[in-house]
Amino acid sequence: MEKLELLPLKDIRLDDPFWNKYTRLVTKEIIPYQWETLNDRVPDAEPSHCISNFQVAAGLKEGTFEGAVFQDTDVAKWLEAVAYSLSYEPDAALEQTADEVIELIGKAQQPDGYINTHFTILAPEHRWANLREGHELYTAGHLLEAAVAYYKVTGKDRFLNIMRRFADLICDVFHQEKYSRAVPGHQEVEIGLIKLAEVTGDRKYMDMAKDFIDRRGCEPNYLVTEHENPLWINIFKDVKPFLPAYSQCHKPVREQDTAEGHSVRATYMYCAMADLAAAYDDRELLDACKRLWDNIVEKRMYITGGIGSSGAYERFTTDYDLPNDCNYSESCASIGLALFSRRMAQITRDGKYIDTMERALYNTVLAGIAMDGKSFFYVNPLEVWPDNCLEHTSMEHVKPVRQKWFGVACCPPNIARTLASLGEYVYFRKDDCLWVNLYLSGETVLQTEDGSATVTQKTRFPFEGKTELHISSGTGHPVRLALRVPAYAEGFTVTEGGAEIPVNIRDGYAYLTGTFTDTTLTVTFAMPARIVYANPNVRADAGKAAIVKGPLVYCLEEADNGNRLAGIYLDTARPLEEAYTDSLLGGTCIIKAKGKKLSEKGWDGHTLYAAKPPVLEDTDLTFIPYCYWDNRGGGEMSVWVKYLT
Amino acid sequence: MEKLELLPLKDIRLDDPFWNKYTRLVTKEIIPYQWETLNDRVPDAEPSHCISNFQVAAGLKEGTFEGAVFQDTDVAKWLEAVAYSLSYEPDAALEQTADEVIELIGKAQQPDGYINTHFTILAPEHRWANLREGHELYTAGHLLEAAVAYYKVTGKDRFLNIMRRFADLICDVFHQEKYSRAVPGHQEVEIGLIKLAEVTGDRKYMDMAKDFIDRRGCEPNYLVTEHENPLWINIFKDVKPFLPAYSQCHKPVREQDTAEGHSVRATYMYCAMADLAAAYDDRELLDACKRLWDNIVEKRMYITGGIGSSGAYERFTTDYDLPNDCNYSESCASIGLALFSRRMAQITRDGKYIDTMERALYNTVLAGIAMDGKSFFYVNPLEVWPDNCLEHTSMEHVKPVRQKWFGVACCPPNIARTLASLGEYVYFRKDDCLWVNLYLSGETVLQTEDGSATVTQKTRFPFEGKTELHISSGTGHPVRLALRVPAYAEGFTVTEGGAEIPVNIRDGYAYLTGTFTDTTLTVTFAMPARIVYANPNVRADAGKAAIVKGPLVYCLEEADNGNRLAGIYLDTARPLEEAYTDSLLGGTCIIKAKGKKLSEKGWDGHTLYAAKPPVLEDTDLTFIPYCYWDNRGGGEMSVWVKYLT
Known about the structure:
The structure is a homodimer.
Chain A: E1 12-14, H1 17-38, H2 50-57, H3 72-88, H4 92-108, H5 117-122, H6 131-134, H7 136-154, H8 158-173, H9 189-200, H10 203-215, H11 222-225, H12 263-279, H13 283-300, H14 331-348, H15 351-367, E2 383-384, H16 411-420, H17 423-426, E3 427-430, E4 433-436, E5 442-448, E6 451-459, E7 466-472, E8 480-484, E9 490-496, E10 499-500, E11 503-506, E12 509-512, E13 519-526, E14 530-534, E15 544-549, E16 552-557, H18 558-561, E17 568-570, E18 577-581, E19 588-598, E20 609-610, E21 616-625, E22 637-638, E23 641-643
Parallel strand pairs in A: 4-8, 17-23
Antiparallel strand pairs in A: 1-5, 2-22, 3-4, 5-6, 6-7, 7-13, 8-12, 9-10, 9-13, 11-12, 14-15, 15-16, 15-23, 16-21, 16-22, 17-19, 18-19, 19-21
């Protein structure tokens, strides 16, 4: 299977009015802030112990391990984000710091190549003895991803070599007889091994990843009986009995056709499955990926690209079960969905996968971070009534406002590495052809076999559906273009000097006939604000509508619409009015609509139930992009709104 | 404060077409079945170990304690239900069995009077050392209630004397300096001590109950710091940090004005507070009761009389937070609410309290038990979609069908004792005046100072609002009558020989002027099926309506209305049609209505979100009483239904 390639990040320079405010947070706010947290220097924040753990494991200081069993991943994700950020904002001091951290990791590496501060310090004899909970392979996967990213951007191979030694150990250990059926409890190492194989050209890492995927869910089921090993020690004291589906080992992966269990684990596994399907030309595995993706996107995904309907176990539940106020929809799970969708598009060249990738990125992933970069959502509800988001209730996982960085932080650094590597989502390439997935301003160099061309995008997307594409081929080498036609695009055209040029639209991409050297193309489509409805099997959304514009899902906030948003009805017969305003949320397009609202007027405050309905009053409604919610001081929020019958 | 009295159960003989099918289950099904479970003789059921534990504690057999720390309460609630049942269905063999169990309890009693098989067998040195979790006083309370009930019905004082010795020990222990601030973690002993004081006339038990109530929530807060006692041992391993509000000790009870924490604990405490307010003429305590009751009924109670909105911690949450599909609303909590409301009515003579008592009894309490008496709901949702009630999700506490008796069963025996003592809810008395709270067929003897009168009710309530009251005073002693005027009653009249007689309606009771010896009165009021709406602050019910008829709340079931009940709209402009049918659910009044339903027609099954709304189709709706739901094989259910705007 031929897979479209990602462009090297160093060849992509994004400069986009919509995205800049987020991508700049990575270098300005998040990376420096996380560095302080890794070093336990943030007052009022729970210490992370991350650097300290490595120092202790390296024998550089006295002390013990502290933090969660997967604490090392914070360092890995930080390094990965640093690597990506260096590709677009070189920073010698930061690179120097990163090099020092890499040296520290090297010093903490054990003679046989093993790296994990928790087990090295606390329980060296229990290495690999509890894959279900131990997260050693998960941690290894994040370190591998970081090492590959750092190598690709900086060209320095120190980190890569450290991790290659660890990967060699993993390959040795997990081909021993006693581990011949072993798989990680939390998938992630597969992605890291695949990336290592790609960058080193050494297929054995890919084979190891494939083994992990092929073994998973087969009988005898390693994770199910692992605790019978005398060296197994319980790590998470309050976790209930092991559920195979929670870790997607309830059946062989090729037989899975519904997305089950912990949604981050699931999507990370699907990413590896897609990569392996392509690498081994494995149609059966690709079919499983397609079924699982379809199941998510047709039956188990929020309109915001959130996944994981249950707070307990952060998991998928059942088809059409999409409650809006008590869901989990972890930011990391939507990142996983974007990564999986991107891989599926690389393999199939079908733009429908990009539609979903874009949905996740523009809504749930962005909502995960405050516009000042200082607070984060792990859980992404579509409806919030702050009063009932109480500690020690069934709603306690839902936070009505973003939270500061935690001691153990999975989502914030994951969002950071995603924003820092945004370029990887914008383009694909194959030979001299550039696939444009996202309309997003910036300049990109396409290296062709015997030259290069620069492609510049200039757009006000997602607020306007018009993009100028400037192609400049200094060496005269022509490029071909495939431009994504989003599912929401109306009247897609490409013009050159005012004249429409013919395109061949196939599976969500417009393939331009001919090649281009130096020219300017204008891509235009309409993407007016629209009212959408959910499949009538989605009980939670019955009788409700949502407003979208292009990839953006909109929401009502209390700041604009008062409280009791559940009492609002949209008048779907009245036109929506789009208005771009510079003064709100750093400049955004809001949507005005007409509706009615249940009033408290005339209702006796001492009466809970009465025979007379509350009065409906006319009301003006203002919708803002969901990604921007909770940037104006809390309050109620709702994506879905009732409509008048 | 003068409190209206309950009539002795032995003077009440109920024979009611609506209630018989439930009350007869108690003697026919529940008591015999529970006796088998107490003796671990039910195949396929988790053993309860209850009788075995008492035998071990009594030294009659070898073995150890098994089951939950409050396992003894199953025996207590069984004995209490047996006592009540003997009042209306004498059964010598059953009474003999009960006597033997009482002897066994006596043998398990320790030399100092202590009774608790868990601590006696497993941890005698840890007695009273963990009141937060140990449930010793809770268990004592249930045994006290059982002993008082058994004494009142049978006149035998063996059990009462056993428990009096235990109560004496409790009074001694909890007046020692080291326990001078101690209170039970789970309230219940207060009710038992109060009943013991009432039946023995010994005020010291009442004083002990009052101390427990007065100490509660005062600083230093005993339960908060109790674990510092070196004898304290953790009992519930997976319970998170102690939350004072969970046990209603977050502030002194007199200062509490919102219902907080675990809803069963809360209502049991409020019962004791009400009793004590009356016994000590304590206006401040009564005011607290009124505030707490108002908070529940005006802001935190489901239309079905369910309370406790959060599955986690089975607790109250915040005002107007009444989610319909993920609530707890434990059957026991509604029993507690009925008991509390009855006490408030006894004290205040205000029928509004009976309205709520009746709401809880006719809806949540009855829904708790299947019509064959063989399965039970602990959790009482108002909306169920069976597909999403999955194990190991946030919804796992919600069971879409009733469950068989558990090893540790709190709700089933609580429902049993409630049904068996139903007579105590029907009447109050004071001197020669009988207060009729519930219209319910049966015969009652009112013992007056120098004679007696028999009052017979004949009614088809709650399906008809007409009751014949026959008064027969063999001894010629006249009685006076106060007849409840429910809040839902329209056009309340009382006639004698066809002629309307004047009544003085005050606080929900119609006081009949004059006295009655031998006559027949006809009480008539209309209670047509009605559409009701929730306070617009109840987010979960915005835009929704419910149907009620008298005390009965109605619901839609899949059996009558197909699935996807969330897509149904009631047409509130069209009349409701009531139809009594003998063929359904043992004879009931169903309600027919017109409406519309979102259709799947024309919706592409592969599409989750689309720009065209689902089509609305006309539909006929059938509502059945909520108490009867899930008696026809599962499926969706919903109390609240959208209405057309």
